[in-house]
From TrEMBL:
<keyword id="KW-0816">Tricarboxylic acid cycle</keyword>
<feature type="binding site">
    <location>
        <begin position="100"/>
        <end position="102"/>
    </location>
    <ligand>
        <name>CoA</name>
    </ligand>
</feature>
<feature type="binding site">
    <location>
        <position position="163"/>
    </location>
    <ligand>
        <name>substrate</name>
    </ligand>
</feature>
<feature type="binding site">
    <location>
        <begin position="17"/>
        <end position="20"/>
    </location>
    <ligand>
        <name>CoA</name>
    </ligand>
</feature>
<dbReference type="GO" id="GO:0004776">
    <property type="term" value="F:succinate-CoA ligase (GDP-forming) activity"/>
</dbReference>
<dbReference type="Pfam" id="PF02629">
    <property type="entry name" value="CoA_binding"/>
</dbReference>
<comment type="pathway">
    <text>Carbohydrate metabolism; tricarboxylic acid cycle; succinate from succinyl-CoA (ligase route): step 1/1.</text>
</comment>
<dbReference type="GO" id="GO:0004775">
    <property type="term" value="F:succinate-CoA ligase (ADP-forming) activity"/>
</dbReference>
<dbReference type="InterPro" id="IPR005810">
    <property type="entry name" value="CoA_lig_alpha"/>
</dbReference>
<dbReference type="InterPro" id="IPR033847">
    <property type="entry name" value="Citrt_syn/SCS-alpha_CS"/>
</dbReference>
<dbReference type="GO" id="GO:0009361">
    <property type="term" value="C:succinate-CoA ligase complex (ADP-forming)"/>
</dbReference>
<dbReference type="Pfam" id="PF00549">
    <property type="entry name" value="Ligase_CoA"/>
</dbReference>
<feature type="domain" description="CoA-binding">
    <location>
        <begin position="4"/>
        <end position="104"/>
    </location>
</feature>
<keyword id="KW-0547">Nucleotide-binding</keyword>
<dbReference type="GO" id="GO:0005829">
    <property type="term" value="C:cytosol"/>
</dbReference>
<protein>
    <recommendedName>
        <fullName>Succinate--CoA ligase [ADP-forming] subunit alpha</fullName>
        <ecNumber>6.2.1.5</ecNumber>
    </recommendedName>
</protein>
<feature type="binding site">
    <location>
        <position position="43"/>
    </location>
    <ligand>
        <name>CoA</name>
    </ligand>
</feature>
Amino acid sequence: MAVFLTKESRVLVQGMTGGEGMKHTRRMLAAGTNVVGGVNPRKAGRTVDFGDRAVPVFGSVADGMRSTGADVTVVFVPPAFAKAAVVEAAGAGIGLVVVITEGIPVHDSVAFTAYAKKKGTRIVGPNCPGLITPGQSNAGIIPADITKPGRIGLVSKSGTLTYQLMYELRDIGFSTCVGIGGDPVVGTTHIDCLAAFQDDPDTELIVLIGEIGGDAEERAAAYIREHVTKPVVGYIAGFTAPEGRTMGHAGAIVSGSSGTAQAKKEALEAVGVKVGTTPTDTARLVLALLDVDRDTTGADHDTADADRDTARG
């Protein structure tokens, strides 16, 4: 089983012919993703050679969907054009839009997430690494070779910490890892992923990575109390962040006691979530709940407190 993305997913790449789009399309293909086309109105009708596969370029998402049956698109376009790209995809009726682009104005994100919701399209992001179902499909920029299929579901605001926890727990493996992004407005939330992992029979344990700012983790805690029966392990980046200062992600700002790492930790622990003090400590908590001896996994890659990663996303 998988969450949101499977080996059956047929993926378009908006902005495939640009530098970042080309690089990450190549990586997605290498991971086994079924990339069926790119989208660029100025290069429609061409194909791009990725070695063992030639990928066609379509003039619109709708054209790509009609020709290939695509149900996912990954957006690698500059911030100024991201809103139009997402609105186009949602308007075409595609099921999932993964918005990698960072630096999108908040008012644009508000507009396209609302439009996508109206159209029944799921947005992952913006400003996110995407999502991966190891061994099946990879939509975005998450490294595919640092973990394997397994029984942990991961949802994270931070791309850096997504990768670190995937690597720390690579001997157990993951059902799906979802990087939801750290902007103030995102399409898919912690709660959306908690609900999906709760319903996924192959996910035995959920890892939730949050960070300072906003109240997403507190709302997730309330949801866990009422709806989640599977064990959840958490980590909050930003314990050492200075009060009142933005830290990397646009959503990572603390005002008074609201949005602090300590407040989020306490909210999660109050509903039974075990919260690690570092990423490595978080991995140890996961292994303990799964009754796995860390010494037998070879997965102990201790690091210093990774709160600094909040500033890098």
